Amino acid sequence: MRMMAAAAALALSGAAFADTTSHYTVLFQGRVAGSEIATVRGDGGVDVQMSYRDNGRGPDLREHSRFAPDGTLLSFAVKGKSTFGAPIDESFALRGAKAQWRSLADRGEATLTGPAVYVPVDSSFEAGATLVRAALRQPGHRIAALPGGELAVRKVLDRQLQSGGQSLAVGLYAVIGIDTRPDFIWLTGPEDPRFFALVIPGLARVIEQGWEGQGAELERLQLQAEHDWLHELATRLAHHTADPIVIRNVRVFDSQNARLLPPQDVYVYRGRIAALFPAGSSVRDAAASIEGGGRVLMPALFDMHAHEDTWNLLLQIAGGVTTSRDMGNDNTRLQEIISQLESGEIVGPRIIPCGFIEGDSPYSASGGFRVKDLQGALDAVDWYAQHGYGQIKIYNSFHPEWVQATAARAHQYGMRVSGHVPAFMRSEEAIRAGYDEIQHINQLMLTFFVGPKDDTRTLARFYLLADHADTLDLSSQRVTDLIELMKQHHTVLDTTLATFEGSFTQKQGEIDPSYAAVADHVPVAVQRGWHENSMNVTEQNAARYRASYDKMVQLVGQLYRAGVPLEAGTDAIAGFTLHRELELYVRAGLSPAQALQIATWNSARFTGRLAELGSIEPHKRADLILIDGDPTQNISDIRRISLVMKDGVIYFPAEVYEALGVRRFVDPPAVQALAPGALARRAAAP
Fold first, then answer.
1. What are phi and psi of 237, to 5 degrees?
2. Which of 105, 120, 463, 587 has its CA 20 to 30 A from that of 77?
3. Closest Cα partner for 184 from 169, 167, 163, 170?
């Protein structure tokens, strides 16, 4: 281990050694976006500088670590700026058996009784290698984590790489226990396990300079390894029950009319809703029975604003989401995921893809097509139409003068047009140019605050609103005119209120209110992350920023009451964020039943799936969720989902959550096999 060896040699001999520096390239979808430089000092310290930009934002940090001769982390310090502009200032020190840490999220200390490793809230990519090495030194490759929990490291695969006449042994490792998914990282060979690469499939690669050409091979190998892991989970988590299935004694949510119906028995056959009978019906030839016990049975939820990956899909299912609209992704990777879902190789919701189109600029986001002119935009629309996409999404760097022609081309194919409002354009202009839908409440409201020189490709799209929305008079003519325009054009708003809640309201060290109700269910490292805000909310501006967020919530309620259609999406961690979004609708003045209607009936309507999804009716797909509680009275009960059904296949959120390191919320209902041969007899009947 190069860093460890340097520290050990110095400690043993007292001699000075030359610094050793490794350079890494940060790439987003093949484009250089920044770098990381790691230097092992002659005194055994390790210094790291990291900076990158994507979508007009990114972190800048400087980090210093110091190690004992045996590789134990003795101290760690990092300072800099977060992705959204907040300060980073974190440190850790181990003196004897006493460990102390301090970050903007928390501070604490512990007396160690055995080996442990500190897990930073903010760090470079290099810090991930430190965690792996610490676990590899322990029996079973498991080690206590500070401030809490335990990490396990799994060696996934080895590979010998070749580049420019050089040969290098590398290994892929998975770190389990930090997040609600494994964290994958590439290190060099076992005799010298230093950081080599990090791959986020379809999005980003961080790789040692000189080896960038091997990035595609690393991604291919990692994708296959992750697929095998996820496929094994699918075999355990998907329960295929013989048909017919009866779900007894449930109060069905009528999503079209936003009301609960009297207790019923719901029959499912071949992945479809077969019939609804009054509760206590005489069961004829059913193979399996699920005891509802008076629980609420709802159509499964939609997440109308996701950027999917294969691990996020599991959280969607656990959260009751069986249909996800992907609002921008790597096109090739997304189609691979859709194919794997359709074949049953992995678990997740069905995905409705939205075609992402971004203009070319230094602030461009990754995903979809990045175009340089109007013809490029029209070509992108053609590609999406030919590949079955029903909607496009225009992004920040798209030129305003291209919008009308691009929207017209999409409408020609029967596609919906949506997006952020491009920089130097206003919401009203986008609507008149052909937008059917606007993504995010902030994108809609920026029209009241942007000046001619305000560039919303930057963090201005967040801070302009935070600094000024508190002054907005919601009864003003400007606001009522915008609402009337949206009504005239039938413009839909994809709200994503929960995405902004913590950013606008949370001071450092406080829990993000969007996740306060679930924080004690997730790993400690995730909890700590929810106590830190990437936006710079301070004592001086907190009251103003919170008042600005209140205006965002109030406007959503005002839009709903005026008849502007809303969509419930997340743009953040799956399941948990959608549940909070629905709570925020209630805070905005909607009834719980109206909030649930938005996440079911409205979503099916605006994705063109109402004939098959969005309500519990005969012949529709059996996409259902069973809830312990009554979310039509207490919207927070939406977190208490005991069973999810997608196309007749059963998933128990308790099992899915626990496979991801999340403590269950409720136990599964009783499922009873009634007559294992019933389906065969029915199939053989004339």
1. -95, -25
2. 463
3. 170
Rounded to whole angstroms, how far apart are CA atoms 40 and 46? 5
The answer, as to whether pTM is greater than 0.70, is yes
Task: Count other C-beta atoms under 10 Å from residue 641's C-beta.
Answer: 31
In the chain, what are the helix, strand and coil shares in percent, each to the nearest 5?
30, 30, 35
Q: Is the dihedral of CA 633, 599, 546, 90 positive or negative?
A: positive
Q: Which helix (H) or strand (E) holds 186?
A: strand 183-188
Quick one: 97 exposed, middle or buried, by C-beta within 10 A (0-12, 13-18, 19+)? Answer: exposed
Over residues 214-263, the pLDDT tens digits come to 999 999 999 999 999 999 999 999 999 999 999 999 999 999 999 999 99
With a pLDDT cut of 70, the percent of the chain lying above it is: 96
- C-alpha to C-alpha distance for 7 and 68, rounded to whole angstroms: 7
CA neighbours closer than 13 Å in the CB half-sphere of residue 132: 29
Please, are residues 188 and 169 in contact by the beta-carbon 8 Å criterion? yes
Our CA angle for 359, 365, 368, nearest 5°, is 75
Residue 482: partners with Cβ closer than 8 Å, 6 or more residues away = 427, 428, 444, 447
**What angle separates helix 542-562 from helix 576-587, to the nearest 10 degrees?**
80
Map residue 498 onto helix, strand or coil.
Answer: helix
CA distance 423 to 441: 16
Structural contact between residues 352 and 339, judged by C-beta atoms closer than 8 angstroms: no
Amino acid, single-letter form, for residue 260: L
Q: Report the sign of the C-alpha dihedral through residues 331, 334, 335, 336, in that order.
A: positive
**Which percentage of the chain shows pLDDT scores above 90?**
92
Residues constituting the chain: 686
Nearest to 183 by CA among 206, 213, 211: 206
CA distance to 37, 126, 133, 177, 645, per residue, from 129 (Å): 14, 5, 6, 15, 39
Residues 6+ apart with CB under 8 A from 544: 466, 467, 470
What are the boundaries of each domain within the chain?
2-211
Dihedral sign computed on CA atoms, order 538, 542, 544, 546: positive
Q: Residue 95 pairs with which residues in a beta bridge?
A: 98
Residue 345: partners with Cβ closer than 8 Å, 6 or more residues away: 227, 230, 231, 234
Cα distance between residue 654 and residue 226, in whole Å: 22
Render pLDDT for 451-504 as a digit per residue (tens, 0 to 9): 999 999 999 999 999 999 999 999 999 999 999 999 999 999 999 999 999 999
C-alpha 19/C-alpha 258 separation (Å) is 67
Average pLDDT, the chain: 94
